[in-house]
């Protein structure tokens, strides 16, 4: 079983929809949580960075962390065709731990 | 702002040949990383460096070597390439090992 599980999709939604992307994890030591967006033939781009449990909002994006359930989510409001990309969750235990553990990514398609 | 520059962008290499993938960052980040990205497996850490002059092994280090002679450069060398090293290679950096990582746009490497 992978340490971080993420549904590969593809997830297809109409423009303007609210998108929910999720990851589950098994390592209770994880306390730093990130979401990256990756366009085709490009490197991952950091979208959101949160520490421990709770919510964080940045424009149309909201990240949620529920450490008790080992579950993290990324919500995209008013989705746009330009949001079409692969979304990767990543997490680490922090405190000098150098490695990020990534989910395998969810491919999102926003239809105009 | 250039950020992280990787070269070459793509390469086809005969099995048994050696190759060095280049990575340069202009953000004066202390920590640098090399990942490979394979379909269904996500991003996996090959090697990392927390500061210039130090390196460490990641999850999949076999067949790869790195050096960190200065802050800006972190080359990855394949001494004798094998077909299983066909992948997309990403270099990343972060201000220190506890901060989110920023990625280059990758090198697509095919070993025949």
Produce a short descriptive summary.
With 112 residues, chain A is mostly beta strands. In chain A, 0% of the residues lie in helices and 54% in strands.
Topology:
The complex is a heterodimer of chains A (112) and B (112).
Chain A: E1 4-5, E2 11-14, E3 19-25, E4 32-38, E5 45-51, E6 54-58, E7 61-66, E8 71-76, E9 85-92, E10 101-102, E11 106-111
Parallel strand pairs in A: 2-11
Antiparallel strand pairs in A: 1-3, 3-8, 4-5, 4-9, 6-7, 7-8, 9-10, 9-11
Chain B: E1 4-7, E2 10-13, E3 19-25, E4 31-38, E5 42-49, E6 56-57, E7 64-66, E8 76-78, E9 87-94, E10 102-103, E11 107-111
Parallel strand pairs in B: 2-11
Antiparallel strand pairs in B: 1-3, 3-8, 4-5, 4-9, 5-6, 7-8, 9-10, 9-11
Q: Key features?
A:
heterodimer; A: 112 residues; mainly beta; 11 strands; B: 112 residues
Oligomer class: heterodimer
N-to-C SSE string of chain B, H for helix and E for strand: EEEEEEEEEEE
Rounded mean pLDDT of chain B is: 94
Major beta-sheet overview of chain B: 7 strands, mixed
């Amino acid at each position: 079983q992978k340490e971080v599980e993420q549904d590969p999709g593809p997830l297809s939604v109409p423009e303007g929809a609210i998108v929910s992307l999720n990851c589950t994890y098994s390592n209770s030591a994880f306390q730093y949580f990130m979401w990256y967006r990756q366009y085709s033939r490009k490197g991952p781009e950091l979208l959101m960075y949160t520490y421990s449990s709770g919510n964080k909002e940045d424009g149309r994006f909201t990240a949620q962390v529920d450490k008790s359930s080992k579950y993290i989510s990324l919500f995209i409001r008013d989705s746009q065709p330009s949001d079409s990309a692969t979304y990767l969750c990543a997490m680490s235990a922090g405190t000098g731990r150098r490695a990020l553990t990534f989910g395998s990514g969810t491919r999102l398609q926003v239809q105009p | 702002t250039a950020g992280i520059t990787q070269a070459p962008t793509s390469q086809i290499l005969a099995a048994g040949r050696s190759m060095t993938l280049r990575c340069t960052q202009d953000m004066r980040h202390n920590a640098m990383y090399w990942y490979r990205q394979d379909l269904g497996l996500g991003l996996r850490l090959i090697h990392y460096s927390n500061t210039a002059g130090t390196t460490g092994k990641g999850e999949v280090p076999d067949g790869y070597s790195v050096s960190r002679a200065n802050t800006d450069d972190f080359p990855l060398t394949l001494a004798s390439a094998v077909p299983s090293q066909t992948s997309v290679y990403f270099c990343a950096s972060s201000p220190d090992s506890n901060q989110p990582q920023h990625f280059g746009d990758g090198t697509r490497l095919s070993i025949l």
